[in-house]
Amino acid sequence: VPLAQVLAGEGAALGRGVAIVTITPDPTTDWIAALRDLQRRGVRCLAVLLAADSFGVAPSHRPAASELEASGILTYVVSRGDSLKAVLLQAGPGPRPAWTSRAALAGRPTP
Predict the structure, then answer these.
(1) Element (H or E) spanning 52, and its range?
(2) HSE (CB half, 13 Å, CA atoms) of 4?
(3) CA 48/CA 84 separation, integer angstroms
(4) Cα–Cα distance between 21 and 35 in angstroms, integer?
(5) What global pTM score does this model have?
């Protein structure tokens, strides 16, 4: 089942203010349109894009990363050898939503 279809189907049940974290190595951009639709409905979206091309021969992750950034979806790119924790704790470009604070991502209670 394509990721875009899963996000659209499952996303129909998600309400305003709910957060969805999408973790995928999918280099296509179809699923990003589904995240944009969810974001427009008030669902908070975060993408963790696994750079499959850093693990071996695979299509580049860069078009998907660019599309996510252009869509205003908070995105973290994880490449081969990266520490997932370190990647998630790094500050990305632009303001970071409160629900993705360093404390929340580190599993600590937030005020």
Answers:
(1) none
(2) 10
(3) 10
(4) 10
(5) 0.79
Distance CA 57, CA 71 (A): 27
Q: Are 49 and 92 contacting, i.e. CB atoms less than 8 angstroms apart?
A: no
Sheet-wide strand order for 19-24: 19-24, 44-50, 74-78
CA atoms within 13 A on the CB side of 87: 16
Cα 2 to Cα 80: distance, rounded to the nearest angstrom: 24
pLDDT digits (tens, 9 = 90+) for 39-76: 999 999 999 999 999 999 999 999 999 999 999 999 99
The number of angstroms, rounded, from the C-alpha of 54 to the middle of its chain's C-alpha atoms is 18
- What pLDDT score was predicted for residue 94? 52
What is the three-class DSSP state of 46?
Answer: strand
> pLDDT tens digit string along 93-107?
555 555 555 555 555
